[in-house]
Every structure is written in C-alpha cells, then in structure tokens.
Amino acid sequence: MSEENVPLAGVIGSPIAHSKSPRLHGHWLRTMGLPGHYIPMEVPSDKLEETLRLLPQLGFVGLNVTIPYKERVMEIADLITDRATIIGAANTLIFRRDGRIHADNTDGYGFIENIRQNVPDWDAKAGPAVVLGAGGASRAIVATLLDAGAPKVILTNRTRARADRLRDDLGQRIEVVDWLQAGNVLEDAAMVVNTTSLGMVGKPEMRVPLDGLRPGTVVNDLVYAPLETHFLRTAKEKGCRTVDGFGMLLHQAVPGFERWFGKRPVVDDALRRAVLG
Ligand code: ATR
C-alpha cells in the first residue's frame, strides 16, 4: 500500500490533549501490524462542519468525537444509527465512499462488552437494574440494558425531571425514583450502575447509602479515574461483583477501529497497560 492510500482516522474535540484514544488506537495499529494512522485534532467550534467535509478528501475514513461536539455532529451527519438517535449523541463517525457521513454511538456496546468480559455469566434478564444518573452516558446504558432484556430499569437522578424525560423517551420498563430514595431500591437490584460523575477525581464522593447492596450484585462504576472509587470499594466489601469504568473506554473504541482499519482488535491487559501509561 502506498503511503497516500494508508487509512487515516482520529479524534476531534476541544480540548483534545488529554484524550486516551490516540494511545489506544496507536497500540492496536502497532501490535496488529496494520497500515494506518490515528491523529488527535483540536477543532475550533466554527470550523467543525468544514473540517468534517474536508477530512475524507485527505484520506480520513472516520473519526471519534469527544466533548464538546458529540451532539453537534448529529446535525452535520447524513446518516445516524438508531442507537445514536436514542442517545442524542455520536462518538464515532464513518466517512463513506459516497461522501456521506455516518454517525454512531458505541457507548452502549462498550458498556455491555466491559460487563461481559469481567462477569462472563452476567445475564441482563436476571433482575432489575438500578441506574444512578440520567445524563448522556445514562441514556446509552439504559437503552442497552432494555435492549439486552432487563426486566426493569430503576432510574434515579439528582434532577428528577431529567430522569422523567429519559423514561418518557425510552418507554416502558423504566421506573423513576427520587434521588434521596436511591439507597432504598438497591436490595431489589441484580445490577447497579453509576453513570454520574460523582467519585471522579476532583468531584464529590457518591453519598447514596449503600447498606442495601446484596452480595453477588453486579456493580459497575463508569468512573475510571480513580480506577477504584469509594462506591466500588464499598460494593466489593459487601461481596458484590464490581466492574470499573476503564474497560468501557477501551471496548467502545472497538467498532470504530474495525470499520476504519478492517480488523477486529482485542481488549487485553497489554492494551490496558499501554493506555494507562
Ligand atoms: P454524561 O454525558 O457523562 O452522562 P452529563 O450529561 O453532564 O454527563 O451527566 C452527568 C450526570 O451526573 C447527571 O446525572 C448529573 O445529575 P443532574 O442531571 O442532576 O445534573 C450527575 N451529577 C453530577 N454532579 C452531581 C452531584 N454533585 N450530585 C448528584 N448527581 C450529580
């Protein structure tokens, strides 16, 4: 393959310096011996559409999208997957040969693959899931759990109206409870997921009382900095099966890489080490 035909992909956002995606895709390209480059690009807001239309002409086959453009790229894209529509945001773009931009959201895929890799016998149908938070990440996770056959999702958010809206958008099998009641529904749960930013470095700790957690419950925190949050540590002490959020970050990158570079990559310890640095 001549250098001019080498596929290019990358990540756009602002700021972009802290994105882990270049390390992640760079590791896969290197270890799989594939031709290609993955480039982080800081794009100013007023140049977003122009950049997206130009990059395919320069040999780009697609992009990851990060803050603050995950919603805006949906207005520019020509085709949008159902899951991106439900979530209201896209994190993966595919530049098609016919010039059209295809937008997808792989957060739900990353979430479920992370759980499956860490808890191989996990079954979404086993019982109700409690989801803490009702932001963008929560939308992806609630939609994915319902798709996977969860009998019920109990949703709770500091701002209740946001949880009510999510229930109205995603339909039956979602029950909204008040944030201050969150501790009271944990004992019914087969799974509990924190989608809020609580517990992240620099943010307040999660204060939901966790006494009701039962041993064996699958407890997942989307936060990955730190890897072990107070929430996960408490759940582990109670005999829960805990899963941190780092694997979701790694798994959500798989579908894009496969589409752009033609081979399915694996998420293993070598990748974890490469990304953690
Ligand atoms: P993301 O796309 O990562 O989900 P987001 O849309 O900003 O980000 O959502 C952040 C989530 O964390 C929301 O559920 C938010 O609750 P509100 O809807 O009430 O804002 C939750 N969150 C952030 N800070 C919080 C805090 N101090 N206490 C409780 N919930 C908090």
UniProtKB/TrEMBL annotation:
Annotated Quinate/shikimate 5-dehydrogenase/glutamyl-tRNA reductase domain residues: 127-197
Catalytic reaction annotation: shikimate + NADP(+) = 3-dehydroshikimate + NADPH + H(+)
CDD domains named in the record: NAD_bind_Shikimate_DH
MF terms (GO), sorted A to Z: shikimate 3-dehydrogenase (NADP+) activity
Catalytic residues, chain numbering: 70
Keywords, sorted A to Z: Amino-acid biosynthesis, Aromatic amino acid biosynthesis, NADP, Oxidoreductase
Domain Shikimate dehydrogenase substrate binding N-terminal intervals: 11-93
Cross-referenced Pfam families: SDH_C, Shikimate_DH, Shikimate_dh_N
Listed pathway(s): Metabolic intermediate biosynthesis; chorismate biosynthesis; chorismate from D-erythrose 4-phosphate and phosphoenolpyruvate: step 4/7
Enzyme class: oxidoreductase
Binding annotation for shikimate: 19-21, 66, 91, 107, 224, 252
Binding annotation for NADP(+): 82, 133-137, 157-162, 222, 245
Residue ranges occupied by any SDH C-terminal domain in the UniProt entry: 245-265
Enzyme Commission identifier(s): 1.1.1.25
Entry keyword annotation includes DNA damage: no
HAMAP family per UniProt: Shikimate_DH_AroE (MF_00222)
Subunit structure: Homodimer.
Family (UniProt): Belongs to the shikimate dehydrogenase family.
Function noted in UniProt: Involved in the biosynthesis of the chorismate, which leads to the biosynthesis of aromatic amino acids. Catalyzes the reversible NADPH linked reduction of 3-dehydroshikimate (DHSA) to yield shikimate (SA).
Name assigned to this protein: Shikimate dehydrogenase (NADP(+))
Record organism: Mesobacterium hydrothermale
